[in-house]
Write a structure and sequence with these properties.
The complex is a heterodimer of chains A (990) and B (421).
Chain A lengths: L1 H19 L14 E11 L2 E11 L2 E6 L9 E4 L4 E4 L1 E6 L46 H7 L2 E6 L6 E9 L5 H4 E11 L13 H18 L8 H8 L5 E4 L5 H12 L3 E4 L8 H6 L3 E5 L5 E2 L4 H4 L4 H9 L3 H7 L4 E4 L7 H12 L4 H8 L1 H6 L17 E4 L9 E6 L2 E4 L10 E7 L5 E7 L4 E5 L9 E4 L2 E4 L7 E7 L2 E7 L5 E11 L36 E9 L6 E10 L2 E6 L4 H4 L7 E4 L4 E4 L1 E6 L29 H7 L3 E6 L7 E4 L1 E4 L6 H4 L6 E6 L21 H27 L2 H6 L7 H10 L3 E7 L2 H13 L6 E4 L7 H7 L2 E4 L17 H7 L4 E3 L10 H10 L5 H6 L3 H6 L17 E4 L10 E6 L2 E5 H24 L4 E2 L3 E3 L11
Parallel strand pairs in A: 1-4, 1-5, 6-7, 9-10, 10-11, 11-12, 12-14, 13-43, 26-29, 26-30, 31-32, 35-36, 36-37, 37-38, 38-39
Antiparallel strand pairs in A: 1-2, 2-3, 5-15, 7-8, 8-9, 15-16, 16-17, 18-19, 18-25, 19-20, 21-22, 22-23, 23-24, 24-25, 26-27, 27-28, 30-40, 32-34, 33-35, 40-41, 41-42
Chain B lengths: L1 H20 L1 E5 L2 E3 L5 E2 L2 E6 L2 E7 L12 E4 L4 E4 L1 E6 L36 H7 L3 E6 L6 E9 L5 H4 E11 L4 E2 L8 E5 L3 H21 L5 H6 L1 H4 L3 E6 L2 H13 L5 E5 L7 H7 L2 E4 L15 H11 L4 E3 L6 H4 L3 H10 L4 H6 L3 H7 L16 E4 L11 E6 L2 E2 L5 H11 L1
Parallel strand pairs in B: 1-6, 2-7, 8-9, 11-14, 14-15, 15-16, 16-17
Antiparallel strand pairs in B: 1-4, 2-3, 4-5, 7-18, 9-10, 10-11, 12-13, 18-19, 19-20
Helix pairs in contact in B: 9-11
The chains are: A alpha/beta (990), B alpha/beta (421).
Chain lengths: 990, 421
């Protein structure tokens, strides 16, 4: 024992000498570190609870914690009498002790190059070289953290895309030298460019591309290139640290997953509290999470008219968010908690308890606060549990912290920080008061243990202001005739009071009986049933995902878009997502297996067509349709930012649309890559993408790309004229050619040579351009006037590729023959014009004229509203110029299918094609026609009768939650109107 | 080309001379009268620029000798001129070219500015609108709190003076919205409650109260106040642009308190929430563009399309407008927005009224135009098919006060030029 003691003594001495060794000492050195022994405590950890345990600490470390521990002689013993001890909590998402992030510098003039001086990354949002530890200093916020149980935090600069290294620090008031536990504890990332004033990136897809390119560049840099770049050096050096990624919402998770997959990184996700919406995706990943506990406030719903502004999506989130941790536990997803996101630190514990009430186990909650965060940071040998040799970080609570326990003390690295002074004495009870003025007067001391209230019945039947600290009580009457001070000891209070004349009297109060507090049981909410998550979790979402059906539509007018034309009294059969038969009076026994369940729909008087295909759409896109910050942004991908929850998907299904090309905007000559989606309402963004579809990319010409209408400050970016636009294309493609050559040469090397030579830098922008040159990616070009259309065809011809589609193409009718000869299709507006100078000669006859000239002609929307009436827009080709009805119909179905290279699977009613089918009430070109049912891959995703049911269902759900909200406690916020973001080609982000 | 042009001019001159002075019978068309009635086999005559007969050819006996010309219109349709209210047509030309914008004066309170004098009769857009049957427009300024005064103008004429039907018919007040977008970039998110709402509505009340006092007593000239006098004697309508129920209630309350004689609500997105009030106060509506998205993600997806039918059922007088993005060039699609209301339950003839007689009543021009009725101006058109359906809308002839108007336009010319190649 002695030996052991000596050892401990010695080691603690060592521990303590390091940090301050270099510091001169004023006076004599304090070397002695006593041992503290905490006895009679419940020591709680996620997997065990030591009842009446003993905890020994010395210096900054734990010596021992167990039921039976020999208490060394000389130890300072603290009897906790049933108090609870937990390891102090760990918060991995803070900016504690770091300078506040500066606001973004605002300037009307666009800034295209970095303002940061030095050998760093070209983009201000990429700054892995920023090391939090270098800027760390203790500050007063530590007290806030300590007061809610935290002992250690990971702190990092919450700014930028590659944010730099975070630092794990203790929240004690010792010197920073001792507080920094791990200097570089994690590398941090996000999709937000933070305070970077540089233009690029302006969109989410731009952020994604920039980060991907950074991974590529850093790897290329690691082969030892000539230039020095400290950002890449830092980036590479941080790759072995835990990688922490902050999301904006749960829909970012699948985006991060794609990056994780591409670059073989494992991320820890700082979540948003809405992860429950993306469970299926999260389950595919290995991500663990850092979750906020900032549940949405409830809304003030007393005014029913105002309350209508709250969307069902908001209501459902309000109800579901407190279940988020529980839902993740049930799905075996690991997470820690962060207090970040709570404006008032106290709300953290409140919300933690709320999560417990919703069914989260205390064990899981404690793990999320202690063991899991320590594991996430690979710091489990330092912190997270009350075990030998770990830091003496623990909190002492009055009771179970997950119920209503109060934190008395938060010990950090063996130093005590008092949070709430423990009131050892319970002074409450009934007393008999005696003095020279009173004789056997009854006194009652009630209230709470720390804030008792006194009633002296003789003086005032109301309770009197009472203060109680330690063992000293002070009771006053409001009139001032009894101002007293007494000391409590052994059931008796002895003291003096001063009367209104200033004379002191001695008094004594003897306890007759103690005050019995009414036991407060923890109320478990009765409705702790996990709310049903809809797909998507908003109005018109599905509770159960519909599946594909075998259906026979009988006796319809079928617009085949094939040589057969329009067939009267015809049946169509769909099965397994495909069209399996088209014909009159079909005999099902010849088509289907005997026992097959088939639904029969009488379509007498109805028209059946294939689904509408919108060649040019900007619905279902999140956080920016344009990465217009550079003239060429071929690296960005709309496919990264699909918004599967956009209500416009459902609305457009109701207009018979089944397929959309989601295009990048037209703010630059070479924009981003498109996404081709089927409107699979209720599915995830990735599930909406059309499997095996060809890649497309947006080009643009004219006023938007030369920034004609962007105001006077935007006169910097090249090009500013149509002359310049041509040169941008030539420049881009010459660069791409050179790049392709470099890679071809490199790839042709034998592997022995490859190993010795430096590989070319992989460039996402040039990759996309090379794909175009190789005809592996196809161009949809926003265009208006004939001069520029002609120009681009010349550029393409000279580079030996094709312009697949000119979109808008409002002067296509002037160069239709050239387009036909080049092989370009046209996808135009039916009748838009006059919205800018370059559409002065736009005519509604354009579609007809192009079609007549043999150009594959489509009519598109570019607009969420028009997108659900494309059948009417097609009809305008009949009105303007006299296109036949069948040809007009092809302009929104078969022709766009051709332009998108999907015509082998979609665009007509033909056996073998996808069962993307619409049942119309009337001739689909008529203004009176309504889509009654829309099938995508044989799944009925819109049905006019079901739509009515869904509305009722929405209302029922709304009223159910509002009822809950009325009785909800706590702060309430005023309902606000939810605005929807609608994108057009020229929508720009700040 | 020149020859063609001359021929064209000649034709028009001819038409004007003969038609203006003769008695013409249009026989056999399906006539949609605008007043809710329809005649399957109509006999409609025009004399001195007015309808001199509107009858069912199956019922009356026709004396062929009474007419200079009888035009047989079997299978065709006759409609009263469609009217687009609340539009910037004629005072804007090219969306992104500021020099062509004459609809928004600077400052918040401009009751004295008049759209009429900025109206460009030679706008290229106008000819594309009237060739779809929209032949009258209430040309309306925009912006500020009080945008100015609108005028009702024929979409034909050499100058505004000749083209105007009713000058300065009313003032346009943009009632503050209780909510406004939280982000001027239009990012999605919560829109904020308008914190200055009470302040702004108080300012409006003060301004209109002053105008009321001026109308009774002023002896000095104040251009703003002078322009508002008509509100208090019934000569001018106050068009209140408001969408939310709360805003409409407040605006109506103010107008009533100040004894403004005639008010019309423009926009009225949430009109169905205040049907009782509208009925009680006998207030009519100029509705938002039918072809719009629902107000919220929770709204019924067809809410904008069914609004007209529901208001009709509630017996509220309303007409359709085309306000919004690209409203000037889009005005030619007004007929189709009426078509959509039919698809969503409104009776066909009621839909016609919503762009003809109802509009005329609301704008106070129903004595001259809005329906095909005896004694009214012969301002109408003939379409070979259903004019509310783009599939069949084909305006072959159109007349203002009996005089044929040119249905050619810039776009048709380009079509002709390039189709021949």
């Amino acid at each position: 024992m002695l030996k052991r003691f000596f050892l401990i003594f010695f080691s603690s001495l060592c521990l303590h000498s390091f940090a301050q060794e270099t510091f001169p000492v004023n006076g004599v050195v304090t070397e002695f570190e006593p041992i503290y022994a905490f006895i009679n405590a419940h020591i709680v950890s996620p997997d065990k609870e030591i009842v009446n345990g003993i905890l020994l600490i010395q210096g900054n470390k734990i010596l021992e914690a167990d039921t039976v521990v020999q208490i060394p002689t000389g130890a300072i013993v603290k009897d906790l009498k049933g108090d609870y001890i937990y390891a102090s909590f760990i918060d991995l998402n803070t900016q504690y002790g770091l300078p506040k992030t500066a606001e973004r510098e605002h300037s009307n003039r666009p800034q295209y190059t970095s303002k940061k001086e030095g050998a760093f990354h070209w983009n201000q949002a990429i700054h892995p070289e920023i090391i939090a530890a270098n800027n760390f200093s203790n500050n007063k916020k530590a007290k806030d953290f300590r007061s809610i149980g935290f002992g250690t935090v990971l702190t990092h600069h919450k700014n930028g895309i590659a944010r730099g290294a975070g630092c794990l620090v203790l929240l004690s008031e010792e010197k920073e030298h001792q507080n920094i536990l791990i200097k570089n504890a994690a590398a941090h990332y996000s999709f937000s460019k933070g305070n970077s004033s540089q233009k690029y990136p302006t969109s989410l897809m731009g952020s994604i591309a920039l980060l991907r390119q950074t991974y590529l560049d850093a790897e290329w840099y690691s082969q030892g290139v000539e230039d020095i770049n400290y950002s890449f050096e830092a980036f590479n050096s941080q790759q072995d640290l835990p990688q922490i990624f902050q999301v904006k919402d749960a829909f970012d998770i699948s985006r991060i997953y794609k990056i994780a997959d591409e670059f073989e990184v494992d991320y820890i996700i700082i979540g948003n509290g809405d992860e429950y919406k993306q469970l299926d995706i999260i389950k595919q990943t290995d991500f663990s999470f850092i979750l906020p506990l900032n549940f949405p406030e409830s809304y003030e719903v007393s005014n029913p008219e105002e309350a209508e502004n709250i969307t069902l999506e908001q209501l459902k989130h309000w109800e579901s968010a407190p279940f988020n941790p529980l839902i993740l536990v049930k799905n075996d997803i690991a997470f820690s908690f962060t207090s970040s996101g709570n404006k008032n630190p106290k709300d953290f514990l409140k919300n933690l308890r709320k999560a417990i009430k919703k069914g989260l186990s205390k064990k899981d909650a404690l793990a999320a606060l202690t063991t899991i965060p320590s594991q996430q940071l690979n710091a489990e040998n330092l912190i997270g549990t009350i075990e030998k040799d770990k830091y003496a970080n623990f909190i002492i609570c009055s009771k179970d912290i997950f119920e209503d326990g109060i934190i008395y003390e938060n010990w950090i690295a063996g130093k005590k920080y008092v949070v709430n002074k423990k009131q050892e004495i319970d002074i409450r009870g009934y007393y008999t008061l005696n003095s020279d003025e009173f004789e056997n007067e009854l006194v009652a001391i009630k209230g709470s243990k720390t804030k008792p209230k006194t009633t002296i019945y003789l003086l005032d039947s109301l309770s009197l202001p009472t203060s109680f600290e330690g063992n000293t009580i002070s009771i006053n009457t409001k009139s001032g005739n009894f101002r007293s001070m007494g000391i409590f000891s052994d059931g008796k209070i002895e003291g003096r009071y001063q009367d209104e004349n200033g004379i002191f009297h001695h008094f004594s109060m003897v306890s007759d009986s103690i005050f019995e507090e009414k036991g407060k049981e923890l109320k478990v909410e009765t409705d702790s049933i996990i709310p049903k998550i809809w797909m998507p979790n908003k109005a018109y979402g599905f509770t159960e995902k519909p599946s594909d059906e075998t259906v026979i539509f009988k006796n319809a007018t079928v617009w085949t878009n094939e040589a057969e034309g329009i067939l009267e009294n015809t049946d169509v059969v769909i099965k397994d997502g495909s069209i399996v038969a088209v014909g009159k009076e079909l005999d099902l026994s010849e088509i289907l297996d005997k026992d097959e369940v088939v639904k029969t729909i009488d379509a007498t008087g109805k028209h059946i067509t294939c689904g509408i295909i919108d060649e040019h759409s900007h619905i279902a896109i999140r956080r920016g349709v344009n990465e217009g910050s550079q003239a060429v942004t071929a690296e960005v991908r709309i496919g990264d930012v699909i918004n599967a929850n956009d209500i416009n998907i459902y609305r457009q299904l109701s207009g018979g649309v089944t397929v959309s090309q989601l295009l990048h905007g037209s703010a630059n000559p070479i924009g981003g890559q498109s996404a081709l989606i089927k409107l699979r309402w209720g599915s995830s963004a990735e599930e909406m993408k059309i499997d095996g579809a060809d890649g497309f990319i947006k080009f643009a010409l004219g006023e938007n790309v030369k920034q004609s209408n962007w105001g006077d400050f935007n006169r910097v970016r090249f090009p500013q004229t149509r002359m310049g636009v041509e040169q941008v294309f030539y420049d881009a493609f010459y660069r791409a050619r050179k790049y392709q050559l470099e890679w071809d040469l490199y790839n042709a090397m034998p592997s022995s040579m490859k190993r010795k030579s430096e590989s070319p830098r992989e460039d996402l922008e040039l990759n996309a351009l090379v794909e175009i040159l190789k005809s592996e990616r196809f161009v949809t070009c926003h265009s208006y006037v004939q001069s520029e259309i002609n120009m681009l065809m010349h550029v393409a011809d000279s580079m030996h590729f094709n312009i697949n589609t000119f979109t808008h193409i409002l002067e296509g009718y002037k160069v239709a023959e050239k387009m036909k000869n080049h092989g370009a299709g046209g996808s135009t507006f039916s009748d838009w014009w006059a919205y800018k100078f370059e559409v002065n000669d736009a005519i509604p006859y354009n579609a007809t004229l192009m079609n007549n000239a043999g150009v594959v002609t489509a009519i598109n929307s570019d607009d969420a509203e028009m997108g659900r009436r494309l059948n009417q827009e097609a009809a305008k080709a009949v009105k303007y110029g006299g296109t036949t009805e069948q040809d007009a119909w092809k302009m929104v179905t078969l022709n766009p299918a051709k332009l998108l290279h999907l015509d082998n699977r979609m665009g007509s009613i033909k056996v073998g094609k996808d069962a993307d089918i619409v049942i119309w009430s009337d001739n689909p070109l008529s203004i009176y026609a309504k889509a009654e049912q829309t099938y995508v891959d044989g799944i009925c995703l819109f049905d006019k009768d079901r739509d009515i049911q869904l509305r009722k269902h929405n209302l029922k759900e709304r009223m159910r939650i509002i009822k809950k909200m009325i009785s909800a406690k706590g702060k309430k916020k005023k309902p606000q109107k939810k605005e929807e973001k609608l994108y057009h080609c020229d929508t720009l982000e700040p | 080309m020149i020859r063609k042009l001359i021929l064209h001019i000649f034709c028009i001159a001819f038409v004007q001379i003969t038609f203006a002075q003769s008695h013409i019978l249009y026989l056999g068309a399906v006539a949609h009268l605008g007043n809710g009635l329809k005649i399957e086999n109509s006999a409609i005559s025009v004399e001195d620029g007015k309808f001199s007969l509107v009858a069912d050819a199956n019922v009356i006996r026709i004396n062929p000798t009474a007419y200079d010309t009888i035009i047989k219109l079997d299978g065709k349709r006759i409609y009263p001129a469609f009217i687009v209210p609340n539009t910037t047509l004629g005072i804007t030309e090219i969306g992104r070219v500021r020099a062509t914008h004459d609809y928004r004066e600077t400052g918040a309170l401009n009751p004295n500015v008049r759209s009429l004098i900025a109206y460009n009769t030679d706008s290229k857009i106008i000819t594309t609108v009237r060739s779809n049957g929209v032949m009258l427009a209430q040309v309306t300024p925009r912006g500020g709190t009080v945008s100015g005064q609108s005028s009702i103008i024929y979409l034909d004429g050499n100058n505004w003076e000749d083209a105007v039907l009713r000058a300065d018919d009313g003032l346009h007040l943009n009632w503050p919205s209780s909510y406004h977008s939280s982000d001027w970039w239009g990012k999605s998110g919560d829109s904020k409650k308008n914190e200055k709402y009470n302040k702004r509505t108080d300012e409006i009340k003060t301004f209109f109260t002053k105008a009321g006092a001026y109308a009774k007593s002023a002896n000095i000239m104040d251009l703003r106040m002078e322009s508002m006098k008509g509100l208090f004697d019934g000569n001018k309508t106050l068009y209140i642009h408001a969408d939310y129920a709360k805003d409409m209630r407040k605006a109506i309350e103010m107008a009533n308190k100040l004894h403004i004689k005639k008010i019309v609500i423009v926009g009225a997105e949430e009109a169905l929430k205040i049907v009782d009030l509208l009925k009680e106060k006998n207030i009519s509506l100029i509705l938002n563009r039918v072809h719009r998205l629902p107000d919220s993600q929770d709204s019924p997806i067809d809410e904008p399309f069914t609004q007209a039918k529901k208001l009709k059922e509630a017996d509220i007088l309303f007409c359709l407008s085309y306000e919004g993005n690209m409203e000037a060039m889009g005005a030619r699609n007004l007929p189709f927005s009426a078509g959509t209301t039919v698809a969503y339950g409104l009776d066909y003839e009621d839909a016609i009224s919503a762009i003809t007689l109802n509009t005329a009543k609301i704008l106070g021009i129903e004595k001259q135009v809005g329906s095909i009725e005896f004694g009214k101006d012969a301002t109408f058109f003939i379409s070979s098919g259903d004019a509310l359906d783009m599939r069949t809308n084909n305006v072959e002839q159109a007349y203002i006060k009996g005089v044929a108007i040119d249905l050619n336009n810039h776009q048709k010319e380009l079509f002709e030029k390039y189709r021949i190649r």
